[in-house]
Amino acid sequence: MTDHVTTLSEILGPKGWLSGTDAEPYQRDWLNRYGVAPLGVARPANTAEAAAVVKACREAGVAVIPQGGNTGLCGGAVADQPNAVIVSLSRMTAIGEPNPESGSIAVDAGVVLAALHEALEPHGLMFPMHLGAEGSARIGGLIGTNAGGSQAFRYGMMQDLVLGLEVVTPDGMVWDGLRAVQKDNAGYQLRKLYCGAEGTLGIVTRAVLRLYPTPKQQTSALLVMSDFAAAVSFGVYLRGEAGEFLAGLEFFSDAGLALALKHLPDLAYQLESRGDVYLLVELASGSPRVPLDEILNSALEWGMEQGLVTDGALANSGAQRSQFWRLREEQPEGQRLEGEQLKHDISVPPGAIARFIKAGAEICGGILPGVRINPFGHLGDGNIHYNLSPPEGRADFDGKAGQFAEALTSLATEMGGSFAAEHGLGRAKIAMAEQNRGIVERELMARLKGAFDPQDTLNPGVLVHAPL
Amino acid sequence: MTDHVTTLSEILGPKGWLSGTDAEPYQRDWLNRYGVAPLGVARPANTAEAAAVVKACREAGVAVIPQGGNTGLCGGAVADQPNAVIVSLSRMTAIGEPNPESGSIAVDAGVVLAALHEALEPHGLMFPMHLGAEGSARIGGLIGTNAGGSQAFRYGMMQDLVLGLEVVTPDGMVWDGLRAVQKDNAGYQLRKLYCGAEGTLGIVTRAVLRLYPTPKQQTSALLVMSDFAAAVSFGVYLRGEAGEFLAGLEFFSDAGLALALKHLPDLAYQLESRGDVYLLVELASGSPRVPLDEILNSALEWGMEQGLVTDGALANSGAQRSQFWRLREEQPEGQRLEGEQLKHDISVPPGAIARFIKAGAEICGGILPGVRINPFGHLGDGNIHYNLSPPEGRADFDGKAGQFAEALTSLATEMGGSFAAEHGLGRAKIAMAEQNRGIVERELMARLKGAFDPQDTLNPGVLVHAPL
C-alpha cells in the first residue's frame, strides 16, 4: 500500500475508503465502455473530508475523478488510468428544509434526484428536473453535466436552477458560494461556470436549488403526427397558445415505438392508428380555474384541421398518462435490448428539427445503407437523441461509428446546434470536441482549465485536453 | 498625437474614431460620478474592426473600456485613467430576422433594447427583458452587466436569455460562439461566463437571444398592502395560484410614492386609500381562454380576506395600466429630484424581503437618525433597490455613505443574498466586493481574469482587481 493511500484511508476511515472488490461497483461507467480500477474510492462524509482528499491527491500527483450517480453516458465519471481516486459523494445526502417563501432548498451533492422529488412532495413544491436516470442520478453529477431533461425548455437546465454552490477546488480549498438568490452580480458567474464543467474545475459538494410550486392540475395527450415538420409546426402553435402551461413536449418515431413494443411486452399502444411521428404533450397549471383540457382539445382540433395531427387522445386517468409517458421513456431501453447501438446527443434550433432528421437520414443511409434511425427527444429545445441500430440482419456498424459521429456533428454545427446537448463530453466525445472547436474556443477552454487546475488533478482527460 | 492613436484612427476611419470634444458625450457615467477623458472613443463598424482596435490597444499598453448605452449605475463603462480607449458599439446595430419556429434572433451588441422590442412586435414575438433604461441600454451592455429587470423572476436574467455569443477576446481574437440552442454542453459554459463579466474578459459583439411568443392578453392591478410581510405572503400565494401567468410583481413604499408624486406633477394616484406598501401585479397569457381577470380578482379577494390587501384596483384600460406602472417606474426619478441620494442594489431570498427591510431600517436609523428609506423593486426575485435620502432638512449624509453600504452589504450577505443584484460592481463597488469576498472566491476570480486577460487590457479596475 502506497503512502498516499494510507493517508487517504486515514482521512476517511473504514466507511469512507473502498478498495479492491469493494471499489468495483464504482469502476465502470453506465454503458460499460470506460473505467479501469482506481487506487480506490473515496467516500467523504462531509465537505472537509472531500477537501482533504483532493488536497492529498494533488500533493501525491494522483488524479481525482468525481462521481455522482454514475449514470452518465460519456464516461466522464470513471478513471482511465490506475493512478486515480474516484471521489463519490454518495454518503453526502442531506436534504435541507425547503423554503416555500423563497422557492429554494439547500442539498448535499450526493442527493439522488428522485429522493429530492419525494422530499418536496409534501410541501407542494417541485424541483423541475426530470430525466430517465432520476432514480440514480445525484445532484452533483447533474450539476457537473449541466443536465437538461424533459422540462428544460420551460424551467431551464441545471445552470438555470442553481442559485448557489459550494465547491472543493483542485487545490483542496472550499469555495462557499451558497447564496440563495437569483440576482447576484457580485463578480464572475462562477456558479454557472461549474455547471457543465464535468468535475474538471472543482467538486460540487452542496447546492442551493430553485424550487417551483407544484401545479394543481395537469393534462396529457399522445398525438400521431403526419411527419416531423408537422410536429415542429404544432409545437410552435402550442408555444404560442399554451406556452405558459407547456410542461412536456416530447417526440419519438415509429421506428422507436416499434422497438419499445417489441422488447417490452408489458407496454401497450392504445391509439387506433400508427404514424411516422408521435408527440407527447403535457400541460400543467397552478390555477384550478384554467380550462386545461379545453385548451389542449382545441389545439388538437386545430392540428387536425391543419392536417398536422392524424390521431390522438387525452389521457383519461393517471394510469393512462403513465402509459403514454412510458412509450416515450422506454425508447432507450427498447433500443438497448435490440442489440448494438450508437447514441448521438444532438441539439438544433427547434425549428430545424425536421430538416436535421431528413438530412441526417440521407447522410446515415449513405454511410451504411439500411441503418435504422431512431430519433426521439425534446421538441421544445431541439434536443434530438439520434440513435442508430444496425441494418436488419446485421449485428454491428461495419466499423463506421466514427463516420456517423463526424457527419452528424458537422450537420448539427452547420445548423447552429450542438453535438453534445445534454449528455456532455466526458471521455467519449473529447476528441470530437477538440476537433470541432475553433482555435479560439479551444484556447479559452484550455486557459480556463489551466487557471483553475494547473496540475490537471481533477478529471484529467475529460472535457478539455491538458491545460495550457 | 501618439503613434497608437494614429493606428486606431487609421483602422477606424473618421466616423469610427472620436477625440477631443467629439468624445465628451462618452466620457462620464450616467450618474456623473466617474470618467476621465480617454485618448478617444473607438466606434468600430464591425467585429473585425473591434478586434483590430483591441489588438492595437493591447500592443500599445492602452486600456480598453467597452461601453454600451452607458446607462450603468456603477461606473463600469468609462475610463479612470487617460491612457485608455472607450470602445462603443453604437454603430453595430443590425437586428437579424427573428426565427419564430426556433424562438431566437441574432443581433449586434450595439442594438438598443427598445429597438429590439419594436422590431419584434410585428412578429408576435418578445424578448422578455424590461428595465427603466431600455430606451438607451444596448444588448452588449445588458449582457456585460447580466441585466435582470422586472421579468427576471419569470424569464431569467440576460445569462438565461443568451443562447450564443460572439466575443472579441483581450488578445484581439474573435470567439465565434454564435450557436442558437439552449442545450449545448460541448465544453465550458463560456456564453454564461461572459454575462456579468462587465467587459473584463472580452467585448461581446453579437448575440443570439431567446425569444418568446407575445402574450395575447394581460391584466394588471395596483394593490395597497398592509405591510412588507403582507406583500411577501401575497407574492407566495400568487406564485402558487397564478405562477405561470405572473409577468410582473413589483413593490414600492409610500415614502417612494410620496417622492414621485411630489416631483412629477403629472403623476396621478387613483386608489382611494394609501398604505405603507404597494404591489403592482401583472398577469399575462398566450391563451385567450384563460380567465385572467377572474384569477386576479379572486387572488385579490383572498388577500383582502386574509388582511394582506387593504385596497386595490384592476387596470380598466391600457392607459390606466401605464399609470400604474409609472407610479413604480418613476420612483428613481422622484428620488433623484429630491436631491442627494444613496443607491443600494440588494437581493435577498424573496421570503426574507420584509425581514431585510425591517432590520435595514433599524440599522440605517442608527447610523443617521431620520434618514429616509425608499425601498422598491422586484418581489419575485428578492431584488430591493434600497435607496436613501438624507433626513428632512439635511442635504447630505454626514459622510456616512460608506457606513450605510457596509452595513447593508453585511445584512444582505448574512441572509444569503447579494449586495450587487443586477447593477453589477463596476468601479463603484469593487472595493466593497474585494472586501466582502471570501479568500477563495477572490482567488478564483483573479485567476479567471488572469487566464483571459493577463495584461489587464480590458476594463482594468472593474469587477476584479489586477489579475493574478
- Give the overall shape of chain A, derived from the CA principal axes: globular
Give the oligomeric state: homodimer
Number of domains of chain A: 4
Q: What percent of the residues of chain A sit in helical stretches (DSSP H or I)?
A: 25-40%
Number of extended strands of chain A: 17
* CATH T-level topology of the largest domain in chain A: Alpha-Beta Plaits
Query: What structural class should be given to the helix and strand makeup of chain A?
Result: alpha+beta
* Poorly predicted parts of chain A: none
- Distance N to C terminus of chain A: 33 Å
Describe the 3D structure:
Chains A, B: It comes from Rhizobium loti (Mesorhizobium loti). Chains A, B: One of its GO terms (molecular function) is catalytic activity. Chains A, B: This is FAD-linked oxidase. Chains A, B: Residues 34-214 form the FAD-binding PCMH-type domain. The structure is a homodimer of 468-residue chains. With 468 residues, chain A is of the alpha+beta class. Chain A folds into 4 domains: 3-88, Uridine Diphospho-n-acetylenolpyruvylglucosamine Reductase, domain 2 (2-Layer Sandwich), CATH 3.30.43; 104-213, 2-Layer Sandwich (Uridine Diphospho-n-acetylenolpyruvylglucosamine Reductase, domain 3); 217-332, Alpha-Beta Plaits; 339-414, Alpha-Beta Plaits (2-Layer Sandwich). The first copy, chain A, has 16 helices and 17 strands. Chain A has helices at residues 3-16, 47-60, 113-120, 139-144, 152-155, 158-161, 190-194, 228-242, 254-263, 292-305, 318-329, 331-338, 353-367, 401-414, 430-436, 439-452; strands spanning 17-18, 40-42, 63-67, 84-88, 104-108, 125-126, 162-168, 174-177, 203-210, 212-213, 217-225, 246-253, 277-285, 309-314, 345-347, 372-378, 383-389. A 7-stranded antiparallel sheet of chain A has the order 14-11-13-12-16-17-15, with helices on both faces. In chain A, strands 1-2-4-3 form a 4-stranded mixed sheet. Chain A starts with a helix and ends in a 16-residue tail after the last helix. The mean pLDDT of chain A is 96. Chains A and B meet through strand 8, helix 7, strand 10, helix 8 and helix 10 of A and strand 8, helix 7, strand 10, helix 8 and helix 10 of B.
